[in-house]
Amino acid sequence: MVVALEKTKVTIKLNPESDPAYLPLKNEIEELHKSTAEMIVVDQQGIEGITNNVNLGSKIKARVEVLKKPWKAPALEAGRTIDAAFNALTKPIDEARTIAEKKVTDCRKVLRAEAERIEAENRRKEAERILLIAEDTDFETGEMPIIAAVEHAPVPIVADKTTTDFGSSRGVMEPKFRVVDFSKVPDSLKVLDEKSEIAKAECKVNAQLKAGVREIPGLEIWLEEATRFRSR
Protein backbone atom coordinates (compact mmCIF):
# COMPACT_ATOMS: atom_id res chain seq x y z
CA MET A 1 0.00 0.00 0.00
CA VAL A 2 1.26 3.45 -0.93
CA VAL A 3 0.02 6.69 0.63
CA ALA A 4 0.85 9.88 -1.29
CA LEU A 5 0.67 13.23 0.44
CA GLU A 6 0.32 15.61 -2.48
CA LYS A 7 0.79 18.85 -0.53
CA THR A 8 4.23 17.91 0.76
CA LYS A 9 5.13 15.46 -2.04
CA VAL A 10 5.77 12.66 0.45
CA THR A 11 5.15 9.06 -0.59
CA ILE A 12 4.82 6.52 2.19
CA LYS A 13 4.99 2.82 1.34
CA LEU A 14 3.10 0.59 3.76
CA ASN A 15 4.13 -2.85 2.50
CA PRO A 16 7.61 -3.59 3.83
CA GLU A 17 6.95 -7.26 3.05
CA SER A 18 7.74 -6.35 -0.57
CA ASP A 19 11.33 -5.47 0.30
CA PRO A 20 13.70 -8.14 -1.10
CA ALA A 21 15.50 -8.34 2.25
CA TYR A 22 12.28 -8.90 4.24
CA LEU A 23 11.58 -12.55 3.39
CA PRO A 24 15.13 -13.86 4.04
CA LEU A 25 15.06 -12.15 7.45
CA LYS A 26 11.62 -13.59 8.15
CA ASN A 27 12.84 -17.10 7.33
CA GLU A 28 15.95 -16.64 9.47
CA ILE A 29 13.86 -15.43 12.42
CA GLU A 30 11.38 -18.29 12.14
CA GLU A 31 14.22 -20.80 12.01
CA LEU A 32 15.78 -19.19 15.11
CA HIS A 33 12.47 -19.43 16.96
CA LYS A 34 11.95 -23.06 15.92
CA SER A 35 15.52 -23.98 16.90
CA THR A 36 15.23 -22.30 20.31
CA ALA A 37 11.86 -23.87 21.07
CA GLU A 38 13.16 -27.36 20.21
CA MET A 39 16.39 -27.06 22.20
CA ILE A 40 16.77 -29.31 25.24
CA VAL A 41 18.78 -27.54 27.90
CA VAL A 42 20.07 -30.00 30.49
CA ASP A 43 23.82 -29.28 30.60
CA GLN A 44 26.44 -26.58 29.97
CA GLN A 45 26.50 -27.34 26.26
CA GLY A 46 22.77 -26.73 26.08
CA ILE A 47 23.12 -23.45 27.95
CA GLU A 48 25.83 -22.34 25.51
CA GLY A 49 23.69 -23.31 22.52
CA ILE A 50 20.57 -21.43 23.64
CA THR A 51 22.72 -18.47 24.73
CA ASN A 52 24.11 -18.32 21.20
CA ASN A 53 20.56 -18.34 19.80
CA VAL A 54 19.43 -15.48 22.01
CA ASN A 55 22.46 -13.37 21.12
CA LEU A 56 22.04 -14.23 17.45
CA GLY A 57 18.46 -13.03 17.75
CA SER A 58 19.69 -9.65 19.02
CA LYS A 59 21.98 -9.32 16.00
CA ILE A 60 19.12 -10.17 13.66
CA LYS A 61 16.93 -7.55 15.35
CA ALA A 62 19.65 -4.97 14.72
CA ARG A 63 19.58 -5.87 11.02
CA VAL A 64 15.79 -5.51 11.04
CA GLU A 65 16.17 -1.99 12.49
CA VAL A 66 18.56 -1.11 9.67
CA LEU A 67 16.04 -2.39 7.11
CA LYS A 68 13.17 -0.57 8.81
CA LYS A 69 14.85 2.84 8.90
CA PRO A 70 14.39 3.87 5.23
CA TRP A 71 10.81 2.58 5.32
CA LYS A 72 9.97 4.76 8.28
CA ALA A 73 11.89 7.84 7.17
CA PRO A 74 9.14 9.35 4.94
CA ALA A 75 6.51 8.76 7.63
CA LEU A 76 8.70 10.33 10.30
CA GLU A 77 9.38 13.33 8.08
CA ALA A 78 5.65 13.66 7.40
CA GLY A 79 5.03 13.44 11.14
CA ARG A 80 7.54 16.20 11.79
CA THR A 81 5.84 18.38 9.19
CA ILE A 82 2.45 17.76 10.80
CA ASP A 83 3.86 18.41 14.29
CA ALA A 84 5.41 21.67 13.09
CA ALA A 85 2.06 22.88 11.75
CA PHE A 86 0.21 22.06 14.98
CA ASN A 87 3.05 23.40 17.15
CA ALA A 88 2.78 26.68 15.28
CA LEU A 89 -0.97 26.62 15.95
CA THR A 90 -0.54 26.20 19.71
CA LYS A 91 2.57 28.37 20.10
CA PRO A 92 0.51 31.47 21.03
CA ILE A 93 -1.07 29.45 23.87
CA ASP A 94 2.38 28.65 25.27
CA GLU A 95 3.41 32.29 24.88
CA ALA A 96 0.22 33.41 26.63
CA ARG A 97 1.01 31.04 29.50
CA THR A 98 4.50 32.56 29.88
CA ILE A 99 3.00 36.06 29.83
CA ALA A 100 0.39 35.04 32.41
CA GLU A 101 3.02 33.47 34.68
CA LYS A 102 4.97 36.75 34.73
CA LYS A 103 1.86 38.90 35.26
CA VAL A 104 0.60 36.77 38.17
CA THR A 105 4.06 36.54 39.76
CA ASP A 106 4.57 40.31 39.47
CA CYS A 107 1.08 40.98 40.84
CA ARG A 108 1.67 38.71 43.83
CA LYS A 109 4.94 40.51 44.57
CA VAL A 110 3.23 43.92 44.44
CA LEU A 111 0.31 42.74 46.58
CA ARG A 112 2.64 41.16 49.13
CA ALA A 113 4.75 44.32 49.37
CA GLU A 114 1.61 46.43 49.78
CA ALA A 115 0.25 44.06 52.42
CA GLU A 116 3.53 44.28 54.36
CA ARG A 117 3.48 48.09 54.10
CA ILE A 118 -0.12 48.34 55.33
CA GLU A 119 0.46 45.86 58.16
CA ALA A 120 3.51 47.86 59.26
CA GLU A 121 1.49 51.08 59.12
CA ASN A 122 -1.34 49.50 61.13
CA ARG A 123 1.17 48.34 63.76
CA ARG A 124 2.70 51.82 63.88
CA LYS A 125 -0.71 53.47 64.43
CA GLU A 126 -1.61 50.97 67.12
CA ALA A 127 1.74 51.56 68.85
CA GLU A 128 1.11 55.34 68.77
CA ARG A 129 -2.34 54.85 70.29
CA ILE A 130 -0.92 52.73 73.10
CA LEU A 131 1.79 55.33 73.70
CA LEU A 132 -0.82 58.14 73.92
CA ILE A 133 -2.84 56.12 76.41
CA ALA A 134 0.27 55.52 78.51
CA GLU A 135 1.25 59.19 78.41
CA ASP A 136 -2.20 60.49 79.47
CA THR A 137 -3.00 57.84 82.05
CA ASP A 138 -3.17 59.05 85.67
CA PHE A 139 -1.37 56.25 87.42
CA GLU A 140 -2.40 57.56 90.87
CA THR A 141 -6.12 57.38 90.16
CA GLY A 142 -5.91 54.78 87.45
CA GLU A 143 -7.93 57.04 85.18
CA MET A 144 -7.19 56.37 81.52
CA PRO A 145 -7.93 58.68 78.59
CA ILE A 146 -10.51 57.68 76.04
CA ILE A 147 -8.76 57.38 72.69
CA ALA A 148 -10.63 56.03 69.71
CA ALA A 149 -9.46 52.72 68.37
CA VAL A 150 -7.22 52.87 65.36
CA GLU A 151 -9.01 52.27 62.10
CA HIS A 152 -6.85 49.67 60.42
CA ALA A 153 -6.52 49.84 56.65
CA PRO A 154 -7.60 46.61 54.89
CA VAL A 155 -4.72 44.34 53.99
CA PRO A 156 -4.70 42.96 50.40
CA ILE A 157 -5.24 39.22 50.18
CA VAL A 158 -2.37 37.28 48.63
CA ALA A 159 -3.66 33.74 48.18
CA ASP A 160 -1.12 30.94 47.76
CA LYS A 161 -3.50 29.22 45.37
CA THR A 162 -6.29 30.46 43.13
CA THR A 163 -8.85 27.96 41.85
CA THR A 164 -11.26 28.52 38.96
CA ASP A 165 -13.65 26.38 36.92
CA PHE A 166 -10.86 25.48 34.48
CA GLY A 167 -8.00 24.88 36.88
CA SER A 168 -5.72 26.67 39.30
CA SER A 169 -2.63 28.82 39.69
CA ARG A 170 -0.30 28.85 42.64
CA GLY A 171 2.80 30.65 43.73
CA VAL A 172 5.93 28.58 44.19
CA MET A 173 9.54 29.22 45.13
CA GLU A 174 11.72 27.51 42.55
CA PRO A 175 15.47 26.91 42.95
CA LYS A 176 17.70 28.47 40.29
CA PHE A 177 21.44 28.16 39.80
CA ARG A 178 24.46 29.57 37.99
CA VAL A 179 28.09 28.52 37.76
CA VAL A 180 30.43 30.70 39.86
CA ASP A 181 33.53 28.47 39.95
CA PHE A 182 33.72 25.87 37.18
CA SER A 183 36.76 24.15 38.71
CA LYS A 184 34.77 23.23 41.82
CA VAL A 185 31.75 21.81 40.01
CA PRO A 186 31.58 18.00 40.34
CA ASP A 187 32.67 16.31 37.11
CA SER A 188 29.30 14.59 36.75
CA LEU A 189 27.56 17.97 36.65
CA LYS A 190 29.96 20.03 34.58
CA VAL A 191 28.40 21.93 31.69
CA LEU A 192 30.17 21.03 28.47
CA ASP A 193 30.22 22.85 25.15
CA GLU A 194 27.98 20.47 23.20
CA LYS A 195 24.32 21.41 23.36
CA SER A 196 23.14 17.93 24.28
CA GLU A 197 25.69 17.73 27.09
CA ILE A 198 24.64 21.14 28.40
CA ALA A 199 21.03 20.00 28.52
CA LYS A 200 22.06 16.74 30.18
CA ALA A 201 24.15 18.52 32.82
CA GLU A 202 21.39 21.04 33.54
CA CYS A 203 18.91 18.18 33.94
CA LYS A 204 21.20 16.53 36.49
CA VAL A 205 21.53 19.76 38.48
CA ASN A 206 17.79 20.44 38.33
CA ALA A 207 17.09 16.89 39.48
CA GLN A 208 19.24 17.49 42.57
CA LEU A 209 17.58 20.86 43.22
CA LYS A 210 14.16 19.23 42.92
CA ALA A 211 15.28 16.63 45.47
CA GLY A 212 16.01 19.43 47.93
CA VAL A 213 19.77 19.88 47.47
CA ARG A 214 20.67 23.53 48.07
CA GLU A 215 24.47 23.41 48.14
CA ILE A 216 26.59 22.19 45.22
CA PRO A 217 30.29 23.10 44.92
CA GLY A 218 30.94 25.75 42.29
CA LEU A 219 27.30 26.74 41.93
CA GLU A 220 25.29 29.62 43.34
CA ILE A 221 21.78 28.46 44.20
CA TRP A 222 18.85 30.68 45.13
CA LEU A 223 15.06 30.57 45.32
CA GLU A 224 12.99 32.58 42.88
CA GLU A 225 9.25 33.21 43.02
CA ALA A 226 7.25 31.80 40.12
CA THR A 227 3.70 30.88 39.16
CA ARG A 228 2.50 27.50 38.00
CA PHE A 229 -0.83 26.72 36.35
CA ARG A 230 -2.66 23.40 36.38
CA SER A 231 -5.69 22.57 34.22
CA ARG A 232 -8.53 20.42 35.50
Polypeptide structure, described:
There is one protein chain. By secondary structure, the chain is an alpha+beta fold. 54% of the residues lie in helices and 16% in strands. The protein has helices at 22-38, 44-136, 195-210, and strands at residues 2-5, 10-13, 161-163, 167-179, 219-231. It has a three-stranded antiparallel sheet with strand order 3-4-5. A hairpin with a 4-residue loop joins strand 1 and strand 2 (10-13). Helix 1 crosses helix 2 (44-136).
Write the layout of secondary structure elements.
Blueprint: E1 2-5, E2 10-13, H1 22-38, H2 44-136, E3 161-163, E4 167-179, H3 195-210, E5 219-231
Antiparallel strand pairs: 1-2, 3-4, 4-5
Helix pairs in contact: 1-2
What is the C-alpha radius of gyration, as a whole number of Å? Answer: 35 Å
Kindly report the spatial arrangement of strands forming the biggest sheet: 3-4-5
Question: What does the average pLDDT come to?
Answer: 86
Distance between the terminal alpha carbons, to the nearest Å? 42 Å
Low-confidence stretches: none
Oligomer: single chain
Number of helices: 3
Structural class by secondary-structure content: alpha+beta
Proportion of residues in extended strands: 15-25%
The percent range for helix content is: 40-55%
Total strands: 5
Task: Please state the overall shape, judged from the principal axes of the Cα atoms.
Answer: elongated
**Strand/helix succession:** EEHHEEHE
What are the salient characteristics of this protein?
232 residues, alpha+beta, 3-stranded antiparallel sheet, 54% helix, elongated
